[in-house]
Amino acid sequence: MHTIRLKKNEERRILAGHSWIFSNEIHDSLQDLEPGQPVRLVSWGGRFLGIGHLSPNSLIAVRLLSRRHAAIDGLFYRERLIAADGRRQWLYPGSSSYRLAFGEADLLPGLIVDRYDRHLVVQTLTQGMARVEELLVELLKEIFEPAAIVLRNDSPVRSLEGLPLERRVAYGEPTEPLVIELHGLRFHVAPIEGQKTGFYLDQRENRPVLQGLVQGGRVLDACCYEGAWGLYAARSGAREVVGVDVSGTALERARLNAEMNGLGARCRFIEENVFDFLTTSEERFDAVVLDPPAFIKSKAKIEEGERGYLELNRLAMRLISPGGLLISCSCSHHLTRDRFQTLLGHAARLAKRRLRLLEVRGQSRDHPVLMSMPETSYLKCFVLEVLPFE
After folding, report:
1. Is the peptide bond before 109 cis (omega within 30 degrees of 0)?
2. What is the assigned CATH class of domain 2-66?
3. Helix 74-91 and helix 133-144: axis angle, to 10°?
4. Where are the domains of the chain?
5. Share of residues in the chain with pLDDT > 90 (%)
6. Distance from first CA to last CA of the chain, Å, rounded?
7. Which residues pair with 189 in a beta bridge?
8. What gap in Å lies between CA 198 and CA 103, rounded to an integer?
9. Which of 156, 193, 256, 303, by CA, is between 20 and 30 Å from 179?
């Protein structure tokens, strides 16, 4: 195993628990080293720091797999996958749908595995995980005996690693239609055609917050995708739910989901850009849910993305009846919780509203946060009461 040495005093962050080593922190040349291979990392003085996957052409040059002297082989990955699944069985006993592996937070940097009943959807996002992709598929088959394994390697993150983008079935034959159940509601999942891996599991613990807050009200589910927030609202007693999304394909599944759960009569869906809808609509709602895609994809896009969040929330507040509810979310990890709260306050002032904070939530427990790595925390969910400015 090749040994890579850091520059002087660059090990402090690693010793504090972070798992990424950036290219400008490394003393040795990475030329001619094979992408994805395991490497041994040491400090300037020769102190062993761990073993990680190498990405010589990426800003994140090494991602630590282990802080011990370990063989990075099939047994290593097998034990990590079993441990990750064991945590989910503990968190969600009896559930058959959850994020099984969440990258660095499960000590498997660059690997995402979502379980939808007997289907597994896998993303290998780094050179290291792409290198062992076939091994991972074989291990997942052996451990979980799935009906199908789908590779959703179409994330833009792979391009930063010099990896091709693709979607394909690696094993078995996906069930059509694939339906999962969460909190007594059933949802269609599209592991190949859908966004991300087919469903947004990271909001599973946030959507039930609507219970008791929207009884008898009109609810707008903006950026509704396949209607999950709206269905929770309808099941929680909302008299009418309006879902808005720009994707006609997603809205078709949203309609199917509403009908499948016996909630179709109270749900209607509009295919339109959400900014256009919010700008032109004269409707009033007792609650609005904003769960948009990430507006900030990189540090270079922070200012532009913040303007997007500011305008989206300003427009939404205009449509909320006095004393109504706003649930506003951001999945941009470049936007901190404090900064998002500041933007929400600014949006309220522009809309001539005041906000009363009821609750702040985050990503579900199957998307755990590694405290030593702030990058693993990305989802913010603010539950707010919208008041007139008086």
Report:
1. no
2. mainly beta
3. 50
4. 2-66, 74-175, 200-388
5. 94
6. 67
7. 178
8. 18
9. 156
Whether pTM exceeds 0.90: yes
Span 200-388 CATH architecture: 3-Layer(aba) Sandwich (3.40)
List helix spans (H) across the chain.
Answer: 12-15, 74-91, 127-131, 133-144, 157-160, 228-235, 248-260, 274-280, 302-318, 337-350
Picking from 211, 214, 241, the residue whose alpha carbon sits closest to that of residue 385 is 214
As a residue count, the chain comes to 390
DSSP per-residue letters across 147-165: SEEEEEE--THHHHTT---
Token couple for 95:
């559930």
**Alpha carbons 220 and 233: distance in angstroms, whole number:** 9
CA distances from residue 232 to 32, 229, 259, 263, 326 in whole angstroms, order as listed: 53, 5, 13, 10, 15
Give the pLDDT band of residue 176 (cuts 50, 70, 90): confident
223 flagged as catalytic: no
* Residue at 220: amino acid letter: L
Q: Strand order of the sheet with strand 320-330?
A: 267-271, 240-245, 218-222, 285-290, 320-330, 380-388, 353-361
The answer to whether 225 touches 203, Cβ cutoff 8 Å, is no
Domain 74-175: CATH superfamily is RNA methyltransferase domain (HRMD) like (3.30.750.80)
Interatomic CA distance for residues 112 and 67, integer angstroms: 21
Residues 190/200, Cβ–Cβ less than 8 Å: no
Q: What does the alpha-carbon distance between residue 130 and residue 3 come to, in Å, rounded to a whole number?
A: 21
Q: Phi and psi at residue 30, in whole multiples of 5°?
A: -105, 5
Q: Which of 224, 267, 329, 331 is catalytic?
A: 331
**Cβ neighbours, 10 Å, residue 20:** 18
Q: Which residues contact 186 (CB under 8 A, 6 or more apart)?
A: 179, 180, 257, 260, 261
Residue-wise pLDDT for 31-87, tens only, equals: 889 999 999 999 999 999 999 999 999 999 999 999 999 999 999 999 999 999 999
Neighbours of 349 (CB within 10 A): 12
74-175 and 200-388 have identical folds = no
Distance from C-alpha of 313 to C-alpha of 351, rounded to nearest angstrom: 9
